[in-house]
C-alpha cells in the first residue's frame, strides 16, 4: 500500500452526529490530531429528525390546545380550523433552519479532518475506508448513532409506516393515525397530532408509558393521555395493508380493529453498527451486541476503542450524547492514561403537555418517598392546567434526594430544579431552605419535600412557616 493510501492521526472519530462532533472537538482541544469520518455529514439526529422538528409540531399542538381551552376563561374564540399543510410546512421550514445551523458548524471543521466515507475494522485497532485507504490511529471513537426500529410487519406497509425520520415529511395532517410505542417519541407525537385534530390511537405491549416507575404518577399520566387519544396498553398490535390505509388489530388488555391512514412506529432506536465489522474489533460485546464500556471514560475494556452517543445504548438523550463525546474525545487524546468523569444524574423529559420527567434512582433504591398532587395546586388551577402528580425519592437517614417521577405543569422546569438538587446531593430540608415565590408551580414541591422531612430525623427548618399561603 502506498503512503498516500495510508491516513494517520492520533484520534479517529467515526460518525459526525452530536456525539461524534463533541468527541472530535474534545480530542483536538486536548492536543490530538484527528480525523472525522462520516458517509454524508448530513447533520445531527436532533436537528434533522429528533428534538427540534418534534418540538415544532408540539408547539403547533399547544397553540391549538390553548384555543380549545380558552372557553374555561370565558373567552369565546368561535370556530377554529387547522391548516395541516401550513402546520407541516412550518415544521419543515424551521427544522431546515436548525439543520442548516448545524451544517455550518460542521463546515468549520478543517477540510483535512473531514473524511467522507465509511470505515470498518479489519483487525483490533485497524480501520479501512470503503475507498480502500487504511487508517492508522492511536485511538478510535465509535459514534455511529442509532436508527428507528421497523419490525418486518410494519416495513411491509411501505410509506404507510412512519418513523421519526419520515413523519415530518407528511405534506398534511392525516385524518387517522395509529402510534405503536409509548416511549418519548410515541407519546409526544401521539398527543401532538391528536391536539391538532387527528384521530389517534396509541398501542403498546407494555402497561407502563415513558418508563415511569411510580404507579401513582403513571395513573395521573394515563388520565391526561386518555383525554386526547384512544389508549391501548398491554396489547399486541398487528398491522395489515388495507385499501384505505392500514388495518390495526389488537388483543390483550383490550381487543379491537380499526383502519388508519398511517402507522407511526416508535418501538425503539437500536445502535448502528452496519458495515463496521465490529466482530473484527476484538471487543467484548454485551447480549445486544454493544461493546462493553466504562461510562466514566467511555473506553471499551482495555482496548484503544471508545464509544459515544446513542451507539453506546446507555441513555439515548442529546445531553448525554454530548457528554459522552466530550468524555470519549478527552480520554482518546489522553490514552492510555484514563481521565474518569462523574456522570450526570440520569434525567429524561418527555415533552407531552404537561411534561413527564424521570430523574435519578427509583423508589426501591431509597427508603423514603414524598408525593405532591397538582390537581388543586394554586398556580396550576389559576391557569386551568391543574393536573398531574409528583413523587420524590430520598435516602435514609438524612433525606438526601435521590430521584423523582413526575407529570406536572412546568414539568421541564421542576425537573431541572430537582435534577440539580439531586446532582448536588441536597436533602429535602436544604431544598426547603431555598426561597419559594408565591404563587408559582414550584410551590407544589413543598408538599413532597415536607413529607420526606416528616419521615426522617431531619426536621422541617424551624424558622420557616409550616403552613401554606392560599392556593400554594
Description:
The longest helix has 24 residues, at 84-107. Helix 1 (18-29) runs parallel beside helix 8, helix 3 packs antiparallel against helix 4 and helix 3 packs parallel to helix 6. The protein has 472 residues and is an alpha/beta fold. It is 29% helix and 24% strand.
**Share of residues in strands:** 15-25%
What value does the Rg take, in angstroms?
25 Å
Total DSSP E strands: 20
Count of alpha and pi helical runs:
12
Percent of residues in helices comes to 25-40%
- What is the terminal-to-terminal distance? 74 Å
Instruction: Point out poorly predicted stretches.
Output: none
Class by SSE composition: alpha/beta
Biggest beta sheet summary: 7 strands, mixed
What is the averaged pLDDT score? 95
Global morphology? globular
Quick rundown:
This protein is of the alpha/beta class and 472 residues long.
